[in-house]
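User: Structure please.
Assistant: Input sequence and predicted structure:
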Amino acid sequence: MSGTMSGDHAPTGTEPVAAGAPAPGVANPVATAVLEHLAAVMDTAPHDQTQEDALGVLHSVVSHAVGLVRAADWASVTIVRSGSPFTIASSHPEAVRADDVQYELRSGPCLDAALDDNVYLTGAVHRDDRWLEFGRRVHAEVGVTSVLAYRLVLLGDESADAALNLYSRAPDAFDDDDLHEGLLLAAQCALLVSAHLASDRADNLLQALGTNREIGVAMGVLMARHQLTQEQAFVMLRVASQDTNRKLADVAREAAETGEVPQRRRRT
């Protein structure tokens, strides 16, 4: 996880993100807990579903984030696409409410983390000059005082940005250990979000390829049966689609099976 630390209320002493690392040869308890939880989810889900449902696993991991990063009361994951942010997973409704305040104002540590490649920390968001309106509202409306936000480094998708958002009602809630544990959790969430987005792209691509294949087969059938050119066959499909008020893919599927395009029913 790349990124620099940004926060006026970060604990003093050693560098926050690096602090709290376990000694050599000692397993980090949060890393172990995250991996054990992921393994449990994978073991209980059908194999084919596990391959496809990264979003379901992400929801499960985020819902357990509060127990993994002990200072957090609520957690969520934000995705920003084409300038539009939305919450893809959350542990509690309060996290979604806090996210929505940021989306409405277009200001807040989670949006900054997603877009700026930083880790953002505040222990008194209602007094933080960086997000005055957001801090005042999220504190009054949701009860948030401390926020810790990590950018999620997504693999193979430059069209989206994402962040892990951890909220707490307590002031100066997140210490060095929380920062390090959140970093490990963010790495897992980044992989799951990447897998989900890749699955979305693959599904859309397969759907498009399937539709194009059906149209291509139908054109070939019409060309062979009616001695048409490619352009004439496609025009025949398009006209039939318009006349019958049906999707082009549906018309193509029927034409491929029957060798004829469907005709508009005439009124009697």
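Residues 8-28, 41-52 have pLDDT under 50 and may be disordered.
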